[in-house]
Amino acid sequence: MDPQQYANNYQDFNSDRSGPPEIRPEEISFEDLIGTGSFGKVYKGRCRQKAVAVKLLHKQNYDAATLTAFRKEVHLMSKIYHPNICLFMGACTIPGKCVIVTELVPKGNLETLLHDQKIQLPLYLRMRMARDAALGINWLHESNPVFVHRDIKSSNLLVDENMRVKICDFGLSALKQKHKMLKDQSSAKGTPLYMAPEVMMFKEFNESSDVYSFGIVLWEILTRKEPFSHHRELEKFREAVCVKHERPPIPADCLDSLRRLIEKCWDKDPIHRPSFKDIIAQLDQVIIDAAMNDAKGREFWKKSFLTEQEVPWEAFIDALCNWSKSPTRTQCDKNSIDYLNIKCLKAILAEQPKSEGTGVDTIVNIEKFGKILEFFGPVPEPTPGHSIMDTIREVLSHKWFHGDLDTADAASRLNGQPVGSFLIRFSSTNIGNFTISQVVADNSIKHQRVSRQASKFVYQNVVYDSLIDIVLKNGGGLNGDIKLDQNLGVPNYKFMYLFCNVSGTSQQYG
C-alpha cells in the first residue's frame, strides 16, 4: 500500500472513531505469549504503565484485505462496552506495527481452565460462568445494528481474578440489521467444532448461529471435555453434524433444566433455538438447580430471588419467614423461640459481603444456602410452627456442635482435653455429612464420619434419627472405640451465646 493510500485510510479511520485514541508503538512493550486469536497472537504487555493484553496480527505486510479486516475489528471493539466483554483500550494502526490493546484478564481462557482437572470448578460456578458469557453475547445481539460474534468458543471466553467471564476476539464478527440474514460467499468463517450447521453448509444465517456455538460451549462447560474429540476428518465431521445431526452425548446425571437448554441451543433448525435473553432466563433456573439439591429449597429461591446469587440477610430472612409461614423479625418477640430460630440461622448462614461499598452488613450466598440445606434438610413443607430453622436451632443448642470447622482446627480445640472429649462438625470433604472428632485412649484424636441416608444418620454402621440422637444414645463403642458422653462435649462458644437469656426454650446444653 502506498503512503498516500495509507494516510487516507488512517484519516478515514480516525474521523469516525468513537473509541480510545491511537496508541503509539513506543508506548507498548511485549512480554509473554498468552494466546492466539483469529488474526493474531496475544501477548501480555505493558502500555502507559498498565499491564495489558496486546494482540499482534499474524501478517504485517498489510494488503488491502488484511488492513480492512484489522480496521473492522478495531472499529467494532471501540463501540462495545459491557462488563462481560473484554475492554478495548486502544490500537496502533501504523502498517507493520498494527496491534490492538485490551485489558489483561489474568486467569486466561476458559478452555484451559475446564480441561485442567486439577482445578476445582463446581458445577454452580461453571453455570455462573456460562451466564456471564450469555450476558456478553446478549449485549452484542441486542445492539443496533446487531453484532454476530461468529467465533463463540471456550478459548474466546476469558476468566478474571473473580472467576467472571469476558468475551474476546472480534476478528470474525459481523454487523447486521435486525431480522436480516448473513451469508458467507467463499469460505465458512469460525471454528468448525463450534460452527452451526447452516454456516458450514453456506446457507443464510443470523445471530442464532452464535446460539448453536454457545450450546457446544455449554456442553463443554458441563463435561469439561473437548467436543467431538473422536472426529479427525473435516468432511466426515461436516456430514455427521449437518446431515446426521450428531451432537456430543449429554451425561445421564445432567440436570434436567440444563439438558433441555443445551438441546434447544444446538437444535438443527435455527428457528427453534432460543434467543440469549431466553438463555439467560433459563440459566437463572439452572444456577439454582446447581447450587442446591433440596427441592423445597430450590422452590423457595426461585420464587424469591430467581435472578440473584446473593442477597442481603434482611431480605433473605423476611422472604424465608413468609415462605415458611413463620413469624418475621418484626412479628416475633425477641425472647421467643421464633426469634431464636432467626438468630441461629443467621449465625450459621450469613456472611460479610466480599465487596466493599455494598451498603449491607451481611449477605446470604445461594451456594452456601444450598450446602446448609444438605446438612440440615430436607426442607419441610411450609407449615406454621415447623421450618428448617427449628432443626438448625435444635442442633446449635448443644455445646458439642461446632459447625464449619476443618480437621486441623478440630484437633486444636480437642488438644489437652480428657479422653472421651468430642465435638461434632460439618464434614470438610463430603457436603451433607458430619464428622465426630474425639480424644481416644492414647490421647490421639480420631475423626469418624456421620453419613446421611435420606433423613437418617449413620454412625459406625448404626442408623440414628438425628445427630442429637447419636449423642443421647451414647453412639459409638464399636471396635474398642470410646462411647459418646454428652457431658464430655467440648463447648463451642460461638453458638452458645445465642441461647443466653432466652425464655420459653427447653433446649439445654448437653
Automatic annotation (TrEMBL):
Residues 28-287 form the Protein kinase domain. InterPro entries: Kinase-like_dom_sf (IPR011009), Prot_kinase_dom (IPR000719), Protein_kinase_ATP_BS (IPR017441), Ser-Thr/Tyr_kinase_cat_dom (IPR001245), Ser/Thr_kinase_AS (IPR008271), Ser/Thr_Kinases-Pseudokinases (IPR051681), SH2 (IPR000980), SH2_dom_sf (IPR036860). Its main location: membrane. Signal peptide: none annotated. ATP binds at residue 55. The keyword ATP-binding applies. Residues 1-17 have a biased composition (Polar residues). One of its GO terms (molecular function) is protein serine/threonine kinase activity. It catalyses: L-seryl-[protein] + ATP = O-phospho-L-seryl-[protein] + ADP + H(+); L-threonyl-[protein] + ATP = O-phospho-L-threonyl-[protein] + ADP + H(+). One of its GO terms (cellular component) is membrane. It holds the Pfam family SH2. Residues 1-21 are annotated as: Disordered. The keyword Kinase applies. Residues 400-471 form the SH2 domain. SUPFAM superfamilies: Protein kinase-like (PK-like), SH2 domain. Keywords: ATP-binding, Kinase, Membrane, Nucleotide-binding, Serine/threonine-protein kinase, SH2 domain, Transferase, Tyrosine-protein kinase. It is found in: Membrane. Its EC number is 2.7.11.1. It comes from the Eukaryota. PANTHER family: DUAL SPECIFICITY PROTEIN KINASE SHKC, SERINE/THREONINE-PROTEIN KINASE TNNI3K-RELATED. Belongs to the protein kinase superfamily. TKL Ser/Thr protein kinase family. SH2 domain-containing protein kinase subfamily. Required for proper chemotaxis and phagocytosis; proper spatiotemporal control of F-actin levels in chemotaxing cells. Negative regulator of the PI3K (phosphatidylinositol 3 kinase) pathway. Predominantly phosphorylates serines and threonines and tyrosines at a lower level. This is non-specific serine/threonine protein kinase.
